[in-house]
From TrEMBL:
PANTHER family from the UniProt entry: HEPARAN SULFATE SULFOTRANSFERASE, SULFOTRANSFERASE
Family that this chain belongs to: Belongs to the sulfotransferase 1 family.
Subcellular location: Golgi apparatus lumen
Name the UniProt record assigns to this protein: Sulfotransferase
GO biological process: glycosaminoglycan biosynthetic process
Every Sulfotransferase domain range: 57-295
């Protein structure tokens, strides 16, 4: 990433013929390569450093929603051999995008050098019925990253995001318990619960990919101690170890780790790490009980267990 930014800096200062403050320029370039971008259109205006091209991702973070995909992507962006498209492209799960074709998809990727891996992340892929086959059709040997967390915690986080979005839009909000419990029973049709049935979704992916092509990142561990999980990803991607403990510092105010790289410090967006509602213990136990069998099946599928309820 640093090499790409420096090359773009030289191009801009040469072509524009006017002094540019380093910090302001770097902020612009970071945005152009998708670091804090919310719109894929930013890539169309990106300056192309010499020797780079837009490439189809060699690795995709396929999910899961509210599992920690944003944190994983930004932490991996520390690595000099990784470039990231932080916009969620939704190419493989949205028909209206998929029909636009692979060249459209490629044009939304950042420029990269030959020695760099392009990574795209769209959390909706994991739960999409179409995404596994479509990604396999694009590249049957691709490496996939899947970050998961305790299914019950993920449901609550899912609810929390929607809750705040509705508040900001001045829409009516419902307490968690009213959504999760219907007629005295667990509302298993609630989309947030459906997304946490990891075994059901994983089964679809294993029909198209070998298990050794899918690396599962422990989302609960990543937020508590990022480095070991990131080192496992480096190994999975056959990359040299470049991410170090000095790249992270714990922000006491936010309550999670932030990133230090390229002489700068940054934290996840303020929408991340929002306080969760206090959930009734009886409801929590119902969720734990419901997911228990699904979790056990998932552990058998991936030959690995996690410290989930």
């Amino acid at each position: 990433m640093a090499f790409l930014l420096v090359s773009a800096y030289l191009l801009l200062t040469h072509t524009q013929g006017a002094p540019v403050e380093n910090e302001a320029l770097l902020e612009t370039l970071k945005s152009q390569v998708g670091f804090f971008s919310n719109k894929s259109e930013h890539y169309s205006a990106q300056v192309r450093p010499p020797g780079t091209n837009r490439r189809i991702p060699q690795t995709i973070i396929i999910g899961v929603r509210k599992g920690g995909t944003r944190a994983l992507l930004e932490m991996l962006d520390i690595h000099p051999n990784i470039v990231v498209a932080t916009t969620e492209v939704h190419f493989f799960d949205w028909d209206e995008n998929y029909v636009k074709g692979i060249d459209w998809y490629r044009r939304l990727m950042p420029f990269s050098y030959e020695n760099q891996i392009t990574i795209e992340k769209t959390p909706g892929y994991f739960t999409s019925p179409q995404a596994p086959e479509r990604i396999h059709d694009m590249n049957s040997s691709i490496k996939l990253l899947l970050i998961l967390r305790d299914p019950t915690e993920r449901v609550i986080s899912d609810y929390t995001q929607v809750y705040y979005n509705r508040l900001e839009s001045h829409k009516r909000v419902q307490p968690f318990e009213e959504i999760v419990i219907k007629n005295g029973a667990l509302n298993t049709k609630y989309k947030a619960i459906q997304r946490s049935l990891y075994d059901i979704h994983m089964e679809k992916w294993l029909k198209h990919f070998n298990l050794d092509q899918i690396h599962i990142v422990d989302g609960n561990t990543l937020i508590k101690d990022p480095l070991p999980e990131l080192q496992k990803v480096e190994t999975f991607l056959n990359l040299p170890s470049r991410i170090m403990s000095s790249n992270f510092y714990f922000n006491q105010t936010k309550g999670f780790y932030c990133i230090r790289s390229d002489g700068r410090e940054r934290c996840l967006h303020e929408s991340k790490g929002r306080p969760h509602p206090v959930v009734n213990n009886t409801v929590l136990e119902q969720l734990y009980s419901y997911f228990r069998e699904h979790n056990a099946k998932f552990y058998r599928m991936v030959n690995h267990s996690f410290d989930w309820h």
